[in-house]
Amino acid sequence: MDRSPRRRPPATLASLAAELGISRTTVSNAYNRPEQLSAQLRTRILEAARALGYPGPDPVARSLRTKRAGAIGLVLADKVSYAVRDPVAIAFLEGLTEECDRARVGLLLVPADPDAEDVAAVASASIDGFVAFAMADEDPHLEAVLARGVPTVICDQPVVPGVDSVGIDDEQAMRAVAEHLLALGHRRIGVACMRLGRAHRDGPVDLERQLRARYHAQRNRLAGLRSAFVEAGVAWDRIPVVERFDNSVEAGASAAAELLGLDSGLTAIITTSDVLAFGVLQELERRHQRVPQDVAVTGFDGVKDAVARGLTTVHQPFVEKGRRAGQLLLEKNPQPGGRRVVLPTEFLPGSTTAAPRT
Amino acid sequence: MDRSPRRRPPATLASLAAELGISRTTVSNAYNRPEQLSAQLRTRILEAARALGYPGPDPVARSLRTKRAGAIGLVLADKVSYAVRDPVAIAFLEGLTEECDRARVGLLLVPADPDAEDVAAVASASIDGFVAFAMADEDPHLEAVLARGVPTVICDQPVVPGVDSVGIDDEQAMRAVAEHLLALGHRRIGVACMRLGRAHRDGPVDLERQLRARYHAQRNRLAGLRSAFVEAGVAWDRIPVVERFDNSVEAGASAAAELLGLDSGLTAIITTSDVLAFGVLQELERRHQRVPQDVAVTGFDGVKDAVARGLTTVHQPFVEKGRRAGQLLLEKNPQPGGRRVVLPTEFLPGSTTAAPRT
DNA sequence: TTGTATGCGTTATCAA
DNA sequence: TTGATAACGCATACAA
User: Which of A32, A95, A289, B153 has the smallest number of CB atoms closer than 10 Å to its CB?
Assistant: First the structure.
């Protein structure tokens, strides 16, 4: 990544000025303040620049001087490639990039691999502000973001004093799902949730781990289920909960298999993401279990595919979430931080839930 | 976006060193070369940093000094938000971000609104290299990319001497579609293509405009159709071709309407993207025209949805395309530019094409 | 293990 | 309309 066709040291503003026998200021103005010099001189400068292979003012040096990078950074709890693989992340990006376009700033996707404690990418991102999306409570990458001291908006994370945040009421949203299934008469229900900590771990989750979950959204969604169950007189400790590190269809399928292994008489499986729910559906189909007759299934997020397939789920406005995050970060007249935006969710009953058979 | 809780001028490496009565070098080492100083001193420095609110070495200043930004830029022929809306762009990003993750660099999405001649974002992006994706031949943003003189890989664009490129054989790929329909017996065929120039323009396209199309992929796909038709003895100038600026379902629907207006006896509609094809299908359904019995439809790209819906299309390996672009740009041992990667495509006959009636 | 000196390439300020 | 000067904040070669 360093093949340059040049010989001599690359031209700079200074070398160009020297060559022309004029000052650096004038050369700088030729690029940044065209009206500050005669069109004639400007043309001469630009031509000399071309002749010398001067590519124009160095962006980094300019940023150093102007204290503007012209970009904001997005950090999420995973590799960069996750951001363009997960439908929820993509939808969030849709809203966020809309605001970037409006403000004419770039968006830097910053790597934050949960397997790596390597925070360098966060510390060395040349940006004017950060959006942190769905990160674990003590993720060092998150701490690095906060430590940068640049304007920041956090999403789907616990409130941090003085920092703007955007989110939903996960607990309340998930209660709707539980109440729906309970009202239908389900009692033997399994739960498949996403990662609860930064370490790879798949398997059953005890109450202790549920309460200590490091991911705000997962913790609160489980809490919503728990309180609804308890209120309905269903012993929560009888409800099998399994965790999957990856939020993938495959993970959902294996979670379903594990749940049915724990209790083959389950009449419903609740998941904390639509993607996991797709996996559950897949596994049930493989086992020739009918949905919803044999097993009811629910998701969370309300992504397009889920709605199209009639999955019972909860819609959260992820595009709007990204948009609001962008607005908070990019607004013209900076406000003091610490604002809190809570977006509404909507329970979407679908065709994957019904009353259990007798 | 500028709310800082600080009073005095923000701390720097120098001010911190001064405060501690040590040299800047040592403070720098505390961050970048921990093994170069005693753990004790290092701790003292880091603590003082925290106390003074010093967020660590400034990334921009560091980049200026080290000549590394730790990020690459992606420029495509549209706003940033397009990159996360179009399924092909998303898939390309999937491959590209994989390589970013591997190389531990960030990805900067650079705005290049076709409506704006504003090239500043490209000129001022702090990056170590560029990927240019599907840009118009004389797009000023593309010229700005090339002018930057940083390592660059171009995708789905005409070869530029000395610049690495990745692409497919659009002409050949599209020929397969034409030959398929011709073999089935279709003769009255309409074509819906994507934008052929940077200016907004929807409507019929004459041969002149086809030949002068500024978008490499569109130009070649049309050429592929043309040569196949001519070879089969079908007069190309009888084939209605309509253009749509937006690559959207709505655009596809309106293109279908326009084509049927031009020739209500069409037995097949060819599109140059799956997304447009979805729109065509939608419009045909609205008109109670059956596919493929009344009208056959083809797409291009082979996106997931298209395959799932049985659209007759051409699959191109966009994920691999992004991956290869990333590899060329990020490889450890830089090679001289000018390499050319041409990826294979695959014609995928589906259920949306059949012989015309009678 | 620590410090000194220098330069990275630019823009802002102010004076001419 | 143009130019001189002074930062911007840091890392590196080299000396101590």
Answer: A32
